Amino acid sequence: MKLDDKILLPETGYYKANLHCHTTISDGELTPEEIKEAYKARGYSIVAFTDHERYRWHRELDDENFLALAAYETECCDFETGPGCWPDQRTYHLNLYDTDPEKNQAEKAQSPRPPRRYGDMASLNEYIDRMNQLGFLVCYNHPYWSLQNYNDYAGLRGLFAMEIFNYGCEHDGLYGFHPQAYDEMLRAGQRLFALSADDNHDRVPFTDPLNDSFGGFVQIAAEKLAYESVIEALRAGRFYWSMGPEIKGLRVEDGVLKVKTSPAEKIFVIQKGRDCYKKLAPRGQTITEAQFPLTGKEGWFRIEIRDERGLYAGTSAYFPAEL
Ligand SMILES: [Zn+2]
Ligand SMILES: [Zn+2]
Q1: 27: buried, middle or exposed (CB in 10 Å: 19+, 13-18, 0-12)?
Q2: How far is ligand 1, taken at its centre, from the CA of residue 78, in Å?
Q3: What's the number of CA atoms in the CB half-sphere (13 Å) around residue 195?
Q4: Which of 27, 127, 264, 296 has its CA 20 to 30 A from that of 4?
Q5: CA of 190 to the centre of ligand 2 (A)
Q6: Phi, psi of 79, rounded to the nearest 5 degrees
């Protein structure tokens, strides 16, 4: 089967975004204004403000080079472990990204929470469905930090994405990067994108090595920096995740998958099955492009690259049957 020519990710035209951020509105140390200033100075154009259980739309921060996405983070804990059992408590954390803050404002202002029934997958999926109806994209956050495993996430439905990397969790205990969870969700039949984010609380200064800002981001190929355009690009999966390296274009041409990157040690194409296409730089060197003939039988595939600093970037999964 020869796949049609298609651009999966453009070479240019990206807006850098942090899609998980806490401010003084919940348990973060910086105000929304301070977040905007710091992230703009680092080249970011978009921040989703995901304060705990507090839906907010900071449209007052918008300018021609900055866009605030209306959002919040909610949770559903394993209450059976009881008070005082925080270190062992499993929990679902979900980010809710508002696709149209002009709609259903009264209901969103109440920041609806999932039912407190940990383990009742049907009730959690009903909640996700209701949030989708209300206009939210729902992201499943940091499963590794949440002490969750396949049994907790294989049955989730209606998700827009999951966090493949969470920089704050990486600082907490080196449990911020969990590509295995994404692959397992895909192999369980879920259709969802992968993203990386800071989940910053900024309890120490930016100069401290334990500061949790600027380590996990997405690059979004939106037509312009406008709310509807960014949401359209997110829905279409026109973005990639990163801890630092860049993906500078991904396309299918004459049945060959062609990817360009910033200097990398390794470029991998992970698939539904065990087979993996790969190109590695000679030791001590780097590469910036790779090409892989596609059979069309990959089931799904996703790019993952690693640079010489040990930092990763990658794409969401693509399904050859639909290309
Ligand atoms: Zn969380
Ligand atoms: Zn968070």
Answers
A1: exposed
A2: 14
A3: 31
A4: 264
A5: 23
A6: -75, -15
- pLDDT computed for residue 1 by the predictor: 61
State the pLDDT at residue 260: 98
Q: How far, in Å, from the CA of 199 to the mean position of ligand 2?
A: 5
Q: How confident is the model at residue 217 (pLDDT cuts 50, 70, 90)?
A: very high
196 & 251 share domain = no
Residues 214 and 47: their CA atoms lie apart, in Å, by 11
Percent share of the chain, pLDDT over 70: 98
Q: Token digits for 92?
A: 């679902």
Ligand in nearest proximity to the CA of 199: 2
Q: Give 60-101 pLDDT, tens digit per residue.
A: 999 999 999 999 999 999 877 666 788 889 999 999 999 999
Residue (of 184, 214, 289, 189) closest to 246 by Cα position? 289
224 and 144, same structural domain?
A: yes
CA of 184 to the centre of ligand 2 (A): 23
With a cut of 70, say whether residue 138 has pLDDT above it.
yes
One-letter-per-residue 3-state SS of 225-244 = CCHHHHHHHHHHCCEEEECC
The average pLDDT across 145-156 equals: 97
pLDDT at position 78? 86
Q: Which residue has the tokens 């990658």?
A: 314
pLDDT single digits (tens) 19-39: 999 999 999 999 999 999 999
- For CA atoms 25, 38, 205, 218, the dihedral sign is positive
Which residue reads 């590469």 in tokens?
287
Kind and range of the H or E element at 131?
Answer: helix 121-134
Q: Do 222 and 265 belong together in one domain?
A: no
From the CA of 21, the nearest ligand is 2
Q: Any idea what the CATH number is for the domain that residue 238 is in?
A: 3.20.20.140
